[in-house]
Design brief:
The protein has 10 helices and 13 strands. By secondary structure, the chain is an alpha/beta fold. The strands form 3 sheets. The protein has a 6-stranded mixed β-sheet, sandwiched between helices. A 5-stranded antiparallel β-sheet has the order 3-2-1-4-5, with no helix packed on it. The protein is globular, with a radius of gyration of 22 Å.
């Protein structure tokens, strides 16, 4: 996205409700050399800001001078921006001039849409939040893991309501089984212990995003991490007793400062998450399958019925769970169906490079 050609125009600068105490350095906000390297010689005097909220017709940002309301140039829509984006703006008018290239981007495909929906940008760690009750669902967690893997963010599965479960260990084990080396943290989102447990991912300048179904405790966890007073706290909702499903409380994405100097992006609950353009993310998620696939007799083996299939041999000896293989097949087919042919051709990984990032 290049710089816009703009003419001077009257403007009004409105400071939004403070999200964080200023002043802050750019590094505190998550700025790194990755973004600095994108600046042109004629852009060093522009204001560097980070998108804090995105609404249909307006956006706000945080900067070294504090929170501000941004002004969009003509023929520019907020759909081009995600919470967490870094932008360059006119220091006097706060008109957005350019969005910098993203280091990571979380996005999802929705039925009927021409483009993917932007979730959050420049996220270091994705907290995949689920609760220790009937909401826990391995198949759904796998979708979030594929999303994080494809984006380049580090996934962490956060098990909330651990204090309400008779035994947390079965939930922890099932979560750890989903992806090799994935971190799993069980906690009570209402206590200060949650801050300590998640501190390694919430250090100064680091950005986390919280995703998960409604009612699993995302807003409660955010309030705890941010130590928000009652008047500033995110609304929270409980779980319905009849089906363990939650009520929507967060309705938009927003950036919040958290203890330890990090930043958190809260997102609305997503009970349905379709996969698209996540081939590399799936390869990482199902590494025990994708590592064996090149050894199959047939290059296009579906691991269902072909002779000489190494994956089926691993299932027969108990090295691979057949249920897990079934979920891989479902996600693989869904991803192939939802991924546009031009995207698939551009991002397709050859069989002998499965699971590797370029």
């Amino acid at each position: 996205m290049g710089c816009f050609s703009l003419r001077p125009r009257p403007f009004t600068v409105t400071v939004v409700h403070s999200i964080v105490q200023s002043p802050l350095s750019l590094v505190d906000l998550g700025w790194s050399q990755f973004f600095g390297n994108q600046l042109g010689a004629d852009e060093t005097g522009l204001a560097r800001m980070r998108i804090a909220t995105v609404h249909r017709s307006r956006m706000t940002a945080v900067s070294a001078i504090g929170p501000v309301k941004l002004n969009l140039p003509a023929q520019t829509t907020t759909a081009d921006f995600a919470v967490g984006d870094w932008i360059l703006a006119d220091p006097a008018t706060h008109i957005v001039l350019r969005r910098l290239e993203r280091r990571t981007l979380l996005q999802r495909w929705t039925e009927g849409a021409r483009t993917q929906q932007l979730i959050a940008a420049n996220v270091d760690t994705l907290f995949i939040v689920t609760s220790c009750n009937d909401d826990f669902n391995q198949a759904r967690l796998e979708r979030y893991l594929a999303l994080a893997n494809e984006a380049g963010a580090t996934p962490v599965i956060v098990l909330t309501k651990a204090d309400q479960a008779p035994d947390v260990q079965p939930y922890r084990q099932q979560a750890e089984d989903l992806q090799r080396g994935v971190a799993v943290v069980a906690l009570n989102a209402k206590t200060r212990n949650a801050v300590v447990a998640l501190a390694p991912w919430c250090k100064s300048g680091q950005t986390i995003a919280l995703v998960g179904s409604s009612g699993v405790g995302k807003s409660t966890l955010l309030n705890t991490l941010a130590a928000k007073p009652a008047e500033d706290a995110q609304l929270t909702g409980g779980i319905r007793e009849d089906d363990a499903k939650g009520r929507h409380t967060t309705t938009s994405r927003s950036l919040h400062s958290i203890e330890g100097g990090g930043w958190a992006i809260d997102t609305p609950g997503m009970r349905t998450l379709h996969v698209s353009d996540v081939r590399a993310g799936l390869d990482m998620l199902f590494s025990e399958i994708t590592e064996l696939a090149p050894k199959c007799r047939f290059r296009d083996c579906t691991h269902a019925h072909e002779p000489g299939c190494e994956v089926q041999a691993a299932v027969a000896t108990g090295l691979i769970n057949p249920v897990r293989l079934g979920r891989w097949r479902k996600l693989h087919e869904e991803n192939r169906s939802n991924t546009r042919s031009e995207s698939r051709a551009r991002g397709y990984l050859a069989p002998n490079t499965r699971g590797r990032r370029h």
